[in-house]
Fold Caspase-8.
Amino acid sequence: SDRYPMDSANAGLCLIINQQFFHNETDKSLERFLPAEKLHERKGTKKDVEELRRTFSRFGFEIILEENKDHKEMLQIIERVTDEFEKRHCCLIVCILSHGAEGIVYGFNSIPVKVSEIEARICSRSKGNLWKKPKVLLLQSCQGENAMER
């Protein structure tokens, strides 16, 4: 068949990682990764989280919300959720709401995480239950210099 089977009773998992607050990492060995300017609070992000939660819940997804996690914790959480994905689940959705730049999103400690590292964890062939299942990565963050026009 040319479609993925979807079952609203087991739609799947929707992981939302919301970075609202930011601080500068204090580990001196990571200082070189900090952005030139301090990252500020993302006001209004709670509204985005509630809309994502409401929308994906309506489609039958189990919501997993994680907030204000550092760069290592972000990857660990994604790893854990992909491990928890069961054969009965139809789809995996990962939403990351944060500051970002081209190809990266920031942990709440202002250390970047490469989008390619996130994709690698979501799409790993070692995750047997995710094999041949749709995986969606939604980024609510800047990804380059060009601002969206109103």
User: Anything to note?
Assistant: The helical segments are 45-58, 71-84, 115-123. The first helix runs from residue 45 to 58.
